[in-house]
Structure formats: structure tokens, C-alpha cells
């Protein structure tokens, strides 16, 4: 049996130890990429993805590659092709829009493709129980 995850009240579904470790690792990564820092005076959170994406000439592309690591791990966990396609679409959309100065950075901070993708993985894995 797997212990509680990193989020309050979050319990991982019963699954193989390898899949559970992968899921926990990508949940932590997604949180760091999308929600690690709170904007002072608000409840809004941003992560390294939004901050590094501010750097012109490659920040967005670099973070897109990091986001694809989550997709790769999902593939290794046996997530369906349909879910993988949706995950790739989330990463491509966020990366493409992030190339637009200012507006893209705001979209990137709000869209949170990595947390969306982890939710897709969890939904898929929970449906298999």
C-alpha cells in the first residue's frame, strides 16, 4: 500500500510500487513547475515554468521539454494514447502561447499544463482500479 501523496488529503490509488513512485515524482515536479511560489498579497501561485519562461530565446522551449518528461513518464506508466495525446496538446499549447511576450507569460502562469497533465494521469489510473 502507498502512503498519502504530497497534497493535503491526497491518497494515491493502490498500484504497483514502481507506478506509485513515478506518480509521486511527477506530482512533485508538476507542483514545482506550476505552483511552487505564491504571488505576494494573493492566493495565486506560479512555478518555475512561468518564471523561466520569462527569459527570451529559449526559456519557453526548455520548459516545454521539461513538461514532456511528465508525458514520457505517463507513457511508461501505461497511460492510454488518447490521454497521452491530450497531454502533449496541453504542453504544445502552453509552450506555443508562452512565446508571445507578456500575454503568453500570463497564460502560462494561469494554464498550468503540468498540473493538468498529472490530473489526467491520476484520472486514468483511478479508472483502472
From TrEMBL:
Keywords assigned by UniProt, alphabetized: Membrane, Transmembrane, Transmembrane helix
Presence of keyword Transmembrane helix: yes
Transmembrane intervals: 50-72
Annotated InterPro entries: DUF4112
Family matches, as Pfam families: DUF4112 (PF13430)
Entry annotated with the keyword Membrane: yes
Annotated protein name in UniProt: DUF4112 domain-containing protein
Amino acid at each position: 500500500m502507498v502512503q498519502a501523496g504530497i497534497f493535503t488529503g491526497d491518497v494515491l490509488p493502490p498500484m504497483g510500487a514502481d507506478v506509485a513512485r513515478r506518480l509521486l515524482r511527477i506530482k512533485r515536479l508538476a507542483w514545482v513547475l506550476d505552483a511552487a511560489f505564491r504571488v505576494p498579497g494573493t492566493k495565486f501561485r506560479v512555478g518555475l515554468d512561468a518564471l523561466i519562461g520569462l527569459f527570451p530565446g529559449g526559456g519557453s522551449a526548455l520548459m516545454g521539454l521539461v513538461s514532456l518528461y511528465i508525458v514520457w513518464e505517463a507513457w511508461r506508466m501505461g497511460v492510454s494514447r488518447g490521454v497521452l495525446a491530450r497531454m502533449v496538446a496541453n504542453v504544445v499549447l502552453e509552450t506555443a502561447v508562452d512565446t508571445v511576450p507578456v500575454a503568453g507569460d500570463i497564460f502560462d502562469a494561469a494554464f498550468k499544463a503540468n498540473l493538468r497533465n498529472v490530473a489526467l494521469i491520476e484520472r486514468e489510473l483511478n479508472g483502472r482500479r
